[in-house]
User: What shape does this take?
Amino acid sequence: MTTTTPWTGTSAVPGGDQGPQDGGRAVDAARWPDVARLPASSTARVAVARALVLRALTALPLTLRLGGEPATGSGPLLHVRRPRAFFRRIGADGLIGFGESYMAGEWDSDDLAGLLTVLATHVDTLVPGPLKRLRGAWVRRRPAAQRNTREGARDNIHCHYDLSNELFALFLDESMTYSSALFPRFPAAPADLPDAQHRKIDRLLDLAGVGPGTRVLEIGTGWGELAVRAAERGARVTTVTLSWEQLVLARERVARAGQHARVDVELCDYRDVRGHYDAVVSVEMIEAVGAEFWPDYFRALSRLCAPGGRVALQAITMGHQEMLNTARTHTWISKYVFPGGLIPSRQAVDGAAADAGLRVTEDFAFGPHYAETLRLWREAFTRAESQVDALGFDRVFRRMWELYLAYSEAGFRSGYLDVRQLLLQPTGETVR
Assistant: This one.
């Protein structure tokens, strides 16, 4: 069934040229208040933003067009259709404003992922060095409401994963796997995706030593494909999720696979799981935990791992300084896509794991495969425009989701982000 969310619904009636527009229609202010209105911003702030943005963009390998003026440069096109609104949003809210401007239809590109890859590749040089010290004056702090307490984590997961199972089915493959695949060849074709997802899952299960009789705990069920795959090896699986929509469909998929006797799908916070397991696996779930609760997460992994057991994680990572900057910042992604989320650095993983009595003994990085996975998802989502509309999601939502997928793809194509499979094993030391 489709979940009603704040993101769904049709746009309001057409408005005047002075208001933010969604394809010629006024943006629905009830659903998208910060997209429907232009933020307050001083003339000086907007002027500084304009000067900095133009200075950065004109030095990059891209084509820039402001309003109806002739285009300049070469490379992926950034067409700013409403320059005054575009610079005003950036002047007021930085990168959040950049994203909201796209959602409002104030700028476009003929190659969105390519454009964002250019920006991500040159992210360290976009702002002059001396001005980086003033970063705190331009960014917002993360809202306290997004903290991943038990209640907060449920709300944050609901915001993204309970949008609609049908929505995710429109761009994921039949395995309903929402994490990086592992491809045998590049470029990948849509038909390659199911096998590539199984290849990724099987590698992680091999890393965890999953076989007949293995007691497996999965933290973060998704829609159940890994649990089914582990059960088909003869393992006994407990898998936990905070998403009600995923719980219902995962149980259905486990039953259809004939594995209901081997798999228990539970609505449960990782902090409340009890027992001991030979293998603890978790795929791209650490990003939803939040830095404040990484110690709890790794202590849970250590506590739940039986003597001689293994912990296998698949995790997105970023550079350590980039993580520290992001941790203090309310970003467009944290506002609209993954509230409460934070991508860790490998250094942060090592530190939190060591404090919990675990150490990383194997590390396999495969970031380019995530870029390919996201490209296939983005192209499938774009092709499904009419079906997305039919589910009740408006055009602003579609632009938001397109930007999210392209933004993520660019992160991996530029090397700003990576994804890795990590094996963690107990050190035998006392947990601090």
